[in-house]
Design brief:
Blueprint (H helix, E strand, L loop, with lengths): L13 H10 L9 H16 L10 E5 L2 E8 H22 L7 H10 L4 H4 L2 H9 L1 H4 L6 H12 L3 H9 L11 H19 L26
Antiparallel strand pairs: 1-2
Helix pairs in contact: 1-2, 2-4, 2-8, 3-4, 3-10, 4-9, 4-10, 8-9, 9-10
Bound molecules: fe (ii) ion (FE2) (2 copies).
One fe (ii) ion binds next to helix 3.
């Protein structure tokens, strides 16, 4: 029985799957075709279980109202983290060919690290949590935890579920894989640099430490 506060999944429409490829074209660079397909499956399941219809509809924020992009949306963050993580791999592989990093896991993990955000950012969920946090929690689950659930449910490898969980605060309680460590640092670097160069709303600069002096810029309109 589905209880009133649990959202039912909508059937996954082909349109959602198409929008995922459009929003995250880097999925095509995952070499393992099975992994590539499961990344699409996972995003489709996550979106279909939420009020969001495509990834680009999710606001560009680290957590709701924290680290808020002045323009852009969640795809800019996901793609930026994927590119940054792959650059880290390139730099180390280029100088030290003996290093052994699974590039496909880094890329798929980076594209899926925030796969729980449709749930944590869902206005319907947020409204329920804020009505009675003493019953549901606020949020009931953070996007990292819910993201690991999504990954395992659609059959993504454990390594990807580990990245979804370990990229975020929860990661400090577990031992991190090499690939998770790279994605976690790419993610944190992306938000911190976005703040320092002036791309984040000043009021939303929470948990960035005391060293940042954010530059003031005019943000171009798209
Ligand atoms: Fe995150
Ligand atoms: Fe992130």
């Amino acid at each position: 029985m589905i209880r009133e506060h649990q959202s039912k999944s909508r059937p996954v429409a082909d349109e959602i799957r198409r929008s995922i490829i459009e929003d995250l074209p880097d999925i095509a660079d995952i070499k393992d075709e099975d992994l590539q397909g499961k990344v699409v499956d996972a995003w489709a399941y996550s979106l279909s279980s939420s009020s969001f219809h495509r990834i680009s509809d999710i606001p560009g924020e680290g957590n709701p109202n924290i680290l808020v992009l002045r323009r852009g949306n969640q795809t800019d963050h996901l793609r930026g983290v994927a590119h940054l993580a792959l650059k880290i791999v390139d730099v180390f592989e280029g100088t030290y060919p003996e290093v052994n990093i699974d590039r496909d896991i880094v890329l798929a993990g980076a594209l899926c690290h925030d796969i729980g955000k449709p749930y944590e950012f869902d206005p319907a969920n947020r409204e329920r949590w804020s009505k009675d946090p003493s019953r549901f929690g606020q949020p009931a689950l953070r996007h990292s935890v819910y993201g690991a659930h999504i990954c395992l449910t659609v059959g993504l490898p454990e390594e990807i579920a580990h990245i979804a969980l370990g990229h975020s605060l929860e990661g400090q309680h577990i031992g991190l894989s090499t690939e998770c460590y790279i994605v976690r640092h790419a993610d944190h670097t992306w938000w911190h640099v976005a703040g320092a160069v002036g791309l984040l709303e000043p009021h939303s600069l929470v948990d960035v430490g005391t060293m940042m002096r954010a530059r003031s810029i005019d943000v171009a309109q798209r």
